[in-house]
## 1
Amino acid sequence: INDPFISTTYMEYMLEYDTVHGKFGGSLSHDEKHIFVNGKPIRVFNEMNPENIKWGEEQVQYVVESTGAFKTIETASAHMKNGVEKVVISAPSSDAPMFVMGVNHELYEKNMHVVSNASCTTNCLAPLAKVVNDKFGIKEGLMTTVHAVTATQKTVDGPSKKDWRGGRGACFNIIPSSTGAAKAVGKVIPSLNGKLTGMSFRVPTADVSVVDLTARLVNPASYDEIKAAIKSASENEMKGILGYTEKAVVSSDFIGDSHSSIFDASAG
């Protein structure tokens, strides 16, 4: 783990107590250069610049670049100066190949050393869009995401040069925001490029977001037919990636769920 901002003491505390996920159930300890999770040592570095992280000392082969600061092939490749073989960027990238599991991951080639795993919203939307597009065809579509608060938002009103509304208090407002998720789907599903658009609302919930997709289909279908197609995919080729439920659930029921996307059939 590399984190230039916190000590291993604080890292242990943050792992043990979590507002959303609760208290960690295993054992934790630390020394100056490690945290120990259930007895397993994890080396901790404190570097600002990726090229200074001594990944080679720990024989690290794969790095997940999740700072949000190094999102291009050039900047993320700095990790590879110390023996790293592959870098996965946990955000959209302007030039790195983008992959969504269950959608286009089979197009990965061994000579791709820096790749993007897209955004959380894209990972939710793309599996659903793929199933509907493969089965019925999508002429055009509008995506709206109702998104839980993120770390970049303000707890109370404050300055936000990029997005004035984004600077308003996250706990007290429904805040319209932009999203690139719909366009990103066109990168991982080329046949949908230019066919989807979208918008986002940030709402005062701690975790779990929802994507609402409205689409015009090439081949008309009833809602029951659409549900059947998604249910079949969730049990077969997209098992573990796309989930399906008909229960009367709400957002907090999905906290901790590992699926990229869960289709709420009874909400339609």
Note: Residues 30 and 144 are 43 Å apart (CA to CA).
## 2
Amino acid sequence: MTAGEIIGQCLTINEDLSQDEAITNVVFMGMGEPLDNLGPVVDALRLMTAPEAMRISTRR
């Protein structure tokens, strides 16, 4: 998956949440070698934790 596809899944879930709910943690799971998609996963994590984007805490 690309970083955009990963973020897209999070945004889709956000649309289904009520105003007072938010994504507070994310778990990455998949099949195969975990480091095969490291670049896009790191890019997605940077976007998820960016203050101007999803603002998911880096401490959770």
Note: The chain has one domain: 3-49.
## 3
Amino acid sequence: GELIDKLTIVYNRTRQAAITTELVEIIAGAEAL
């Protein structure tokens, strides 16, 4: 239903944000070496 669609979108955005944050931290860490 509509609720599940909204939850899926929120979940995907949250997961994508977490992945982006991890990538930024990895890149920042690599540049610090």
Note: The longest helix spans residues 2-32.
## 4
Amino acid sequence: MDVIFSSSQALLNAHSGITSHVGFIRQQPRTPLVVQFLRIILYVCLALSFMLFVERLYMGIVIAFVKLFRRKPEKKYKWEPLKGDLELGNYSYPMVLVQLPMCNEKEVYQLSIGAACNLSWPANRIFIQVLDDSTDPTIKALVEQECRKWASKGVNIKYEIRDNRKGYKAGALREGMKHNYVKLCSHVAIFDADFQPEPDFLERSIPFLVHNPEIGLVQARWEFVNADECLMTKMQEMSFGYHFTVEQEVGSTAHAFFGFNGTAGVWRMSALNEAGGWKDRTTVEDMDLAVRAGLNGWKFVYVDDLKVKSELPSTFRAYRNQQHRWSCGPANLFRKMAMEIATNKKVSVWKKFYLIYSFFFVRKIIAHVVTFILYCVVIPATIFIPEVQVPRWGTIYIPTAITLLNILGSARLSKEKR
């Protein structure tokens, strides 16, 4: 009992000491310059928060319209299943290239290669291209052996390696495009090593490109096989749920543009080449390609009910690296392309405004920056500088409204899981 009493008394003394210290700091005189500076930063953050709220509200309205009028891509664009011609037979199907970039993917290479080789498409109208950047000779040998196994079964599969890793994934995809057989292909599907498309993936996505010459990209939704592995994967699933169900759907429906997710999508080869192909100038090569293709006037289609299985990062290190790449890359790309977007003559002023303001500034910059600065820096600082008053609408009403809009936008994900 004496030990418990002593511990409790120590905690009370520590709390009292901290409270006294904070109170002492609050009572110290502060220069008007410091107060004014903090007040300006606060007002800027509140204005940015309001812009984020308006953007969320706008996307919520568009999604309500999509759900109310059932605006599926099959109704907006022409879609008919492809059938073999009586005279041409399977040659009436377009030639498709399936690229599988990978690097030291020992745990999943068999699943991804097997899923790609099992795609339902005429065998003489498809190339499976395994782009192996593995640095481990053992893994490289296993991947090559797997490719040979499928080749012995009659699958048109190509195992491609290079002597360096310049450009990483973008460099591997760019090198893969240089092979002669690629020139025969009119469409290219891309799947990362941990993605497993269903056999009917091409049968459901390619018709959009065949029947609508203005469409340059068809993007599928990601579905996660390990979403229930831990709390971190569950939180990621909710975040991705909002991204696909709301952000990608809004971009596809209202603007025929969204950021390519880098995998589980099919490009029209001419759209990809016209945009300049893959570039490794940023860590978001997929978004870079999408913006350049969008500026050339190509339309993108997101198909929400076309799903591809994948895995979420289940360790904090992998998650941190992924988020760092996705957070810093868009800002760097925006810096490089802002003037190019503003001076573009091929797209409308409305689309340029959407790209600069909504797609880049609000979603890729404000959404990442204002949350940290406002809630982790400015508001804590006002505790020590009471002259700066934080309005209730900025700390309660707007964050609550944004949270509710996010929840409503992702509500269908929870409904599907039940």
Note: The mean pLDDT is 89.
